[in-house]
Amino acid sequence: MKVLVATEKPFAAAAVEGIKKEVESAGHELVLLEKYTEKAQLLHAVKDADAMIIRSDKVDAEVLDAAEKLQIVVRAGAGYDNIDLKAATSHHVVAENTPGQNSNAVAELVFGMLVMAVRNFYNGKSGTELKGKRLGILAFGNVGRNVARVAKGFGMEVYAYDAFCPADVIEAAGVHACKSQDELFESCDIVSLHIPATPETLKSIGYQLVNKLPKGGVLINTARKEVINEDELLKLLADRTDLKYVTDIMPDADAAFKKLEGRYFSTPKKMGAQTAEANINAGIAAAKQINAYFADGCTKYQVNK
Ligand code: 3PG
């Protein structure tokens, strides 16, 4: 079987080596398409692929049409909003993700960016510490739980809200469970977003909600840009000059946000999962899932059931 790794943002070399070993150990062939710049390159590469490993790479109906032999696509990572699941199902393609494999990397970046934000982006002015501050985690999944663990190391008070995770599970992790998003934003100095991009969460983080942050509040986004209502957030940040926004996913309105000097930062390219460890964990997990699918039809991590 031909296993295509199609990554516009490549894995670390050690991860590619690990994926290759894994795929070849099962008698399959690995084909690499890295740093591609045109969709046409992807359309060409998928033509004879039986399986595909991707990151944030878009797999839409056009890609699936071109992928005549494709049986399985694995998103090496958590969020699978880049795969058209309906189209995958109608093309009889199994779509999977690798939950939890890159979550520590994303959680660590949250604190890298937070320290920078509360120290005024290292501009020389006196900042604040994270110790003793209240951190709100919006969605208590794999990344949220890692964020809670690290936050406790910083001596932060940790709060969380998750529409799908029962309060007793959150409390069992030593985290205060909030009853709503509103309560989370009202109760915390900093809120960290870990919600997926779904029809329910699109543009759900807007003026009214973020305005509930107390004076000097910080919003940090290492989830998806689509969950932010950018127009509303820009308006709020203009009205509330005490608030800061830091993000690992550059907003469409980056140029407008950049005018909020000293209160905004975006990484140039999503960096949360960009560590050797996360690439190795997620990439090899993806390869193993593909091997298991071809060996005995295992679809444990299927997201288009
Ligand atoms: C994920 O959903 O796993 C993260 O957002 C990482 O995405 P990436 O592999 O595109 O960096």
UniProtKB/TrEMBL annotation:
E.C. no: 1.1.1.95
Keyword hit for ATP-binding: no
Gene3D superfamilies noted in UniProt: NAD(P)-binding Rossmann-like Domain
SUPFAM superfamilies: Formate/glycerate dehydrogenase catalytic domain-like, NAD(P)-binding Rossmann-fold domains
Domain D-isomer specific 2-hydroxyacid dehydrogenase NAD-binding stretches: 123-251
Keywords, ordered alphabetically: NAD, Oxidoreductase
Pfam families named in the record: 2-Hacid_dh, 2-Hacid_dh_C
Domain of life of the organism encoding this protein: Bacteria
Every D-isomer specific 2-hydroxyacid dehydrogenase catalytic domain range: 21-304
Alphabetized GO MF terms: NAD binding; phosphoglycerate dehydrogenase activity
Family: Belongs to the D-isomer specific 2-hydroxyacid dehydrogenase family.
Protein's UniProt name: D-3-phosphoglycerate dehydrogenase
Source organism: Segatella oris
